[in-house]
Design a protein that fits this description.
- It is built from 13 helices and twelve strands.
- With 343 residues, it is α/β, with parallel strands linked by helices.
- α6 runs parallel beside α7, α7 runs parallel beside α9 and α11 runs antiparallel to α12.
- This is Delta-aminolevulinic acid dehydratase.
- Keywords: Heme biosynthesis, Lyase, Magnesium, Metal-binding, Porphyrin biosynthesis.
- It catalyses: 2 5-aminolevulinate = porphobilinogen + 2 H2O + H(+).
């Protein structure tokens, strides 16, 4: 008996006595055993890649606040869709940077059949028919005030906004979108979109509900990417959810499911893992999270400063979504992660 063991024996029970010989480190001792008992896995099939569109041809504009992310003209977006498909990424979500001359108070250009979103969809689908295309029918890229809805006398008017969002959703389905993902958070939008899609013969086009989109501080780089940060008048607290409210998030999700949503999304992601878990446990439907621009940029910035291991932090953050209950994740890291997982 060595000195340390004798000291331990004098001061109390042995570790085997304390644990009843249940040593939980046994299955962590080797790589093979850790892999054997791993409870949660991240795969390339969990990834949705959000990309930004810009008018033009062969145009690639870097976004300083989002290192490695670009605005892409539709032809280059189609090339990137080919790359995504080759990596096994199931779907792409598109967001447009719309020329200021095309923006107005009511976001009228959102429903134009040849707007940037719809041209991007057609270009991607022509190049890679097998990849999924997810489009957002919200009005913020198309309004001159940066809000997701129509602004009247300082108020975002719900029902008039829903009419415009529905028109945008139908135009997106006509262009070839597979999933409509309205992020505007207006009451009744899901049911109205479902009825309109069905009446126009698009029963197979699904709806991903941004059921729980929170009034968050993490959207900054995204708003710069779509050109709304300098336009926004006021804030979005009258229609986005209060970050303090989880019961309200459940009610929003329940309402959207009753109206015909096929899947739920939580946005942002990491600050709302509890919401993801609660929705998955409550509704047992396909549940997604959007790892938003601020989350992406924080990891990138910390890694660039040498404060964290960027690759490990990226993978750990995505694994946390899966552990919370996500079926898939919208993340700007998608192609980088896919390359790592495919290696």
């Amino acid at each position: 008996m060595d000195r340390i063991t004798r000291e331990a024996a004098r001061h109390g029970r042995s570790v085997d006595e304390i644990t009843s010989s249940r040593r939980l480190r046994r299955m962590r001792k080797a790589d093979w055993s850790r892999r054997l008992v791993q409870e949660t896995r991240l795969t390339v099939h969990d990834l949705i890649w959000p990309i930004f569109l810009v008018d033009g041809v062969n145009k690639r504009e870097p976004l300083p606040a989002m290192p490695g992310v670009f605005r892409l003209s539709p032809d280059l977006a189609a090339q990137e869709a080919r790359r995504a498909a080759s990596l096994g990424i199931p779907a792409i979500a598109t967001f447009p940077y719309v020329d200021l001359a095309l923006r107005d108070q009511i976001g009228s250009h959102a429903s134009h059949p040849d707007n940037l979103i719809n041209r991007g969809t057609r270009a991607i689908k022509d190049a890679v028919p097998e990849i999924g295309v997810i489009t957002d029918a919200a009005l913020d890229p198309f309004t001159d005030h940066g809000h997701d809805g129509i602004l009247r006398d300082g108020i975002i008017v719900n029902d008039e906004t829903v009419d415009q969002v529905v028109a945008a959703a139908v135009a997106q389905a006509q262009a070839g979108a597979d999933i409509i993902a309205p992020s505007d958070m207006m009451d009744g939008r899901i049911g109205a979109i479902r009825e309109a899609l069905d009446s126009e013969g698009f029963q197979d086009v699904a709806i991903m509900s941004y059921a729980t989109k929170f009034s968050s501080a993490f959207y900054g780089p995204y708003r710069e990417a779509i050109g709304t940060s300098g336009l926004l008048k006021g804030d979005k607290k009258t229609y986005y959810l209060d970050p303090a409210n989880s019961d309200e998030a459940v009610r929003e999700a329940e309402q959207d499911m009753l109206e015909g949503a096929d899947m739920l999304m939580v946005k942002p992601g990491l600050p709302y893992l509890d919401i993801i878990h609660r929705l998955k446990e409550t509704f047992a439907v396909p549940t997604f999270a959007y790892q938003v621009s601020g989350e992406f940029s924080m990891i990138k910035a910390a890694a660039a400063n040498g404060w964290i291991d960027g690759e490990r932090a990226m993978l750990e953050s995505l694994l946390s979504f899966k552990r919370a209950g996500c079926d898939g994740i919208l993340t700007y890291f998608a192609p980088d992660v896919a390359e790592i997982l495919n290696a």
